[in-house]
Amino acid sequence: MREVEVVGVRVEMPSNTPIVLLREAAGERYLPIWIGAVEATAIAFAQQGVVPPRPLTHDLLRDVLEATGNEVEEIRITEMRDNVFYATLVLASGVEISARPSDSIALALRTGSRIVCDEGLLDDAGILVPDEQEDEVEKFREFLDHVTPEDFEQGKE
Questions:
Q1: What's the rounded Cα separation, in Å, for the pair 79 and 122?
Q2: Regions of the chain short of the pLDDT cut 50
Q3: Which end of the chain is more exposed for a tag (fewer CB within 10 A), N or C?
Q4: Please, are residues 20 and 33 in contact by the beta-carbon 8 Å criterion?
């Protein structure tokens, strides 16, 4: 397993489909995962520190885990089958729960949990971005600095 960091979310054009982009913490590989608009908003909210007036589903799950004395140890993005990514929530108690990567990432950002990705998955689905192409990634980061959760609302272009 390799630790990854959340670069951010954006809308892929022309399909208008949100993606979350992960970057290998100690490497040059990126992993794009296509996600839903609701999950993109949840991830963007967490990254921007937006606190909604009422808890969103991921906030509720975090609160339930805390109230019951459970901690999220780490999020594991484990595999891709038929172009669908799979993840596992690992609790400090050792309990493992199957989950979607988008929900897992939204929860990890709210709990400060580590996110790791299977090495083979990074080999198969990751994109190698050498240092000389880092300026393209920087442009993406600039985009992320100016995107708002409302940009991910259904039907927006």
A1: 9
A2: 155-157
A3: C
A4: yes
Q: Would you list the DSSP string of the chain?
A: -EEEEEEEEEEETTTTEEEEEEEETTSSEEEEEE--HHHHHHHHHHHHT---SS--HHHHHHHHHHHTT--EEEEEEEEEETTEEEEEEEETTS-EEEE-HHHHHHHHHHHT-EEEE-HHHHHHH-EE--GGGHHHHHHHHHHHHH--GGGGSTT--
Share of the chain above pLDDT 90, in %: 59
Supply 70's token pair: 């459970």
Whether 129 and 28 have beta carbons less than 8 Å apart is answered as yes
